Amino acid sequence: MPDPVPAIELRGISKAFGPVQANKDISLRVMPGTIHGIIGENGAGKSTLMSILYGFYRADRGEILINGRPTAIPDSQAAIRAGIGMVFQHFKLVENFTVLENVILGVEDGPLLRPSLAKARAELKALAEEYELEVDPDAIIEDIGVGLQQRVEILKALYRKADILILDEPTGVLTPAEADHLFRILRNLQAQGKTIILITHKLREIMEITDRVSVMRRGEMVAHFRTAETSPPELAEAMVGRKVLLEVDKTPARPGAPVLEVENLRVVDAKGVERLRGISFRLHAGEILGIAGVAGNGQSELLEVLGGTMKATGSVRLKGQALDISGNALGRARRDSGIAHVPEDRQTRGLILDFAAWENVALGYHHRPAYGSGTRLDLAAMQADARDKMQRFDVRPPDPFLAAKSFSGGNQQKIVVAREIESAPDLLLIGQPTRGVDIGAIEFIHKQIVSLRDRGCAILLVSVELDEILSLSDRIAVMFDGRIMGEREAARTDARELGLLMAGVADTAAGRAA
Amino acid sequence: MDWTTILLLLDSTLRTASPLLLACLAGLFSERAGIFDIGLEGKMLVSAFLAAGFAYATGSAWLGLLVGIAGALLLSAVHGLASITFRGNQLISGVAINFLAAGLTVVIAERWFRQGGRTPQLDSGSRFTEITLPLAETIRPVPVLGPIYAQVVSGHTILVYAALLAVPLSWWVLFRTRFGLRLRAVGENPAAVDTAGVSVARLRYAAVAIAGLLCGIAGAQLSTAEPAAGFVRDMTAGRGYIALAALIFAKWRPWAALWACLLFGFFQALEARPDIFVRLFDLRVPSALLSALPYVLTVIILAGFVGRAIPPRAGGQPYVKER
């Protein structure tokens, strides 16, 4: 049987942003009715390629064929006409509009809204029933959860009669249960004959749902596989260009004395909502405690309280000494008491983007004797120190004079991690250590965290990536709605059980289910 | 305070509020589309000057109005070019427009008419005259409603009625039409509009042009609608800024803008009647203090009485697609 005509064929697509070659001579064939995965590290050019296909960017060179016909896609309107719909990683929704208004935006039926809204309401109902995509059409976007917002994005594409649906990192913001539901929807869409392109950096998702997978690395398409005929290690190697250790290599923890004792921690935010509702736990030296949970369930607040930037009630003891949780603690006092903090948002909290790398490497530790005395800073020593740390932490390029904003996400994170780990802390607070960081750098950062643990540091790890929590932690606590839903030994639990806790199913029920 | 005084006060409230209202709606369209417009003041000023100058030269208030609008539109185009096409800082562009307007109007007026930076007095043929609405005299004897209709509602220039009509019209355009939906969307999340296949720049230019049109009418009203009779330097006297304050007070909503502008207009009307304070409270309020009243009120309202006013989210940020 001859191959059918590809739903999408890309030939020789190239795109440069200034000196950066985001896509180099890319060719790709996506067969109709398949789920086609595109995998690659951050910055490999996946999103750029798909944005070109959606007419958001224009390619410098190359050709796009839709169902065998050469098609020019100068703008998104043309992509929509060609039957392509896109669900961006960062949703393109108007937050204070209703679901219905977002769906019709740009494809209204005439200058007056009323008839357009009525038509969309009817059609949305039909789509919802057909594909398990129920959403209240009159809900305001900012009032509904991200899972539902994503459904609105999918509905937008379907309402525009898309036959080809592109999803860019769709599961990043979802709970495991929501991700499962999304995959059900995608299979449904596939069964109706839609073609789906799934962009992700998660190997597990590729293996779970795709029919074929293409791998991108540094702007180039490097390999194509049938999913059934490949394996995660093979894909990882294709992505990074060398063998990668997917599992974190670590020995069992040898916990020492308690370093951090948290009791009944409560936080009420400016709107009067209780964000932490009585958090208690203990963390020992030489141990990694992972805090799992869907973003926004109080993990950020916990980190901020411990980091000294948010007011809380309750008690926190560090090595037996009470810690100031009035929210007015000085960062310097925190550091001097032995706490290092890799904040969740490295770009706004961890770095000053316009400052050079060497200034960032010293940030917050300027008063230490190594950097000078009195009011005088020893710039030469600071720069040499930065050069040394950047080399040891494999920051690329290892140029201390480059501004922080010029490094990729992974290398920015390495700068922050180098600074904090090298301060030789007793307690490391680390939030989303590998968000937006590529596989090669993830492996490196994980190794550093484990080796710090082995040197006797207590580590509090907050991450929304369940895989990361599972592979790195010695103990795992799951947060939901400002509470700890349950605590598990990492060796004696799995993603399913944690997923239930993350969704707020009470400890006893989850225990039974497991 | 007697009935007649109240009616007179309300009458002048409506008159002083209407240029504020037009400017406020101008700002509303612009800011709802994500373009801050500090330059309302400058656009009004230029229009006030051009309208008066051309009304004097041609003898037609309508021609003056057209030229005034054209001038305001020109400044809008400059603002659009700076802030949409060249992605400049919208505040700076607006401030530049205000300085430009303040200087140019006086310089050109002096060169043109040689009367110290003002235009000559307009006679009643070359300005907008007050209109008596139908049945005003017939209804007047009716208690309460009669005098209100005859004294407060009737007897304004066409531009005042245009300003009042602009309120429901703006509301309808913004909330009942496709254009309005897109315009509001572009002020909240331009990327959503862009990915829907609609031009962000075109929408924003349209919004800025509407702002120019409304500012043009507001300016013409200041200089060519009775009782005004010509342009004097800096005659907008901060009305553009008060309109912006009213816009925040109204939380970027047309009907609320009407009430906010009427409030500010009321205080401006009070300014002209120090005798009221004498009669009511036996208090001689210095006129300088009275003149300051609308501005003081602006500060107080902005500082404390607005509550949570959430501006359009993409306001002030140029839209950049490529990284």
From TrEMBL, chain A:
Superkingdom of this protein's organism: Bacteria
ABC transporter domain sequence ranges: 8-243, 260-506
Topological category with respect to the lipid bilayer: Peripheral membrane protein
GO annotations of cellular component type: plasma membrane
Predominant location: membrane
UniProt GO molecular function: ATP binding; ATP hydrolysis activity
EC number, UniProt record: 3.6.3.17
Homology family: Belongs to the ABC transporter superfamily.
Protein name per Swiss-Prot or TrEMBL: Nucleoside ABC transporter ATP-binding protein
Organism: Rubellimicrobium thermophilum DSM 16684
Automatic annotation (TrEMBL), chain B:
Alphabetized UniProt keyword annotations: Cell membrane, Membrane, Transmembrane, Transmembrane helix
Topology relative to the membrane: Multi-pass membrane protein
A GO CC term assigned to this protein in UniProt: plasma membrane
Subcellular location: Cell membrane
Keyword DNA damage carried by entry: no
Entry GO MF terms: transmembrane transporter activity
Keyword Transmembrane: yes
Main location, first listed in the record: membrane
Segments crossing the lipid bilayer: 6-28, 40-57, 91-113, 148-174, 205-222, 242-267, 288-310
Protein name: Nucleoside ABC transporter membrane protein
Native organism: Rubellimicrobium thermophilum DSM 16684
